[in-house]
Amino acid sequence: MLYISSSAPQINKQVSHSVVVLPLGAIEQHGPHLAVSTDTDLVTAIAHEVEARCREDILLCPTLPVGSSHHHLTLGGTLSVSPAVYTDLLVDLVSTMLDNGFRRIILLNGHGGNVTPARQALAILSAKYDGTLNPNIAMATYWELASEYFAGHQHMASPALSHACEYETSMMLHLYPEKVFSDKMERATRPPSNGYIPWEDDEPYKGVTMIKQSRYISGNGSSGEPRLGTAEKGAFLFEHAVEALVRFVTSFKNWPFATDLTQSLDR
């Protein structure tokens, strides 16, 4: 069921049994060959297909189109909310869902920069509501939920999804080919490997993180090898992302609410 197409009374009838899904996108530069709407477009398409397959279980909110993308600002074309403000925004939005009576909520993430502030929002919401409303609130990032297919599956040439890469380019070719400027595809100049920081998609993560503005880690704002992208690969990735989300929603809707395990302690 689509939140934005429903009346308030119709939405109120979903309180007892629906999982509210809020997709999180971004409007940011995706190199010279992809539209700045890429992250929002992909997570929205996935969310709507999941809703179509789980209509009785999901109340799908409109996608939050702007994410936390300050690291891309220096390359232009980006609209962004700072991490602290983005955390506050998610806390406020989810709080209104809780005020309306919903207790099962999924933040469906489609942009890597949203992960840290969204997790912080989950921590704040947990501290605020676990002792009273005790809701189940989760974040699911689609390429991590379907990691078997987004991290070096034999169907793909690149070892992992990165940014404006083979994976994202393929899905955009499948879903929105008019937003792919194929004549502009090129592999970006990247920093040399130092053995620890994954500047490029073929460097394994070793537990070390460093944050740099995009202009210092990519010559054109992209990463990976977008020229390896195809619409056929995009259809493959899209279907497996949808299937992974359907499985998760089907499971999540039946998760029991947490029980206070300390109640029996002698205080």
Computed Rg: 19 Å
* Uncertain parts: none
Order of helices and strands: HEHEHEHEHHHH
- Shape label: globular
Structural class: alpha/beta
Distance between the termini: 46 Å
Tell me the strand percentage band. Answer: 5-15%
Number-wise, the strands total 4
Number of helices: 8
- Oligomeric state, counting identical vs distinct chains: single chain
Strand neighbour order, sheet with most strands: 2-1-3-4
Mean pLDDT: 94
Helix content: 25-40%
Main sheet attributes: strand count, strand direction, barrel closure? 4 strands, parallel
Structure report:
The chain is α/β, with parallel strands linked by helices and 267 residues long. Helices cover 35% and strands 8% of the residues. It has a 4-stranded parallel sheet, with helices on both faces. The model has no long low-confidence stretch (mean pLDDT 94).
Short description:
The protein is of the alpha/beta class and 267 residues long. Helices cover 35% and strands 8% of the residues.
Question: How does the SSE layout of this entry go?
Answer:
Blueprint: H1 8-12, E1 19-24, H2 38-53, E2 58-60, H3 83-99, E3 104-109, H4 115-129, E4 136-141, H5 142-145, H6 147-150, H7 166-175, H8 231-252
Parallel strand pairs: 1-2, 1-3, 3-4
Summary tags:
single chain; 267 residues; alpha/beta; four-stranded parallel sheet; 4 strands; globular
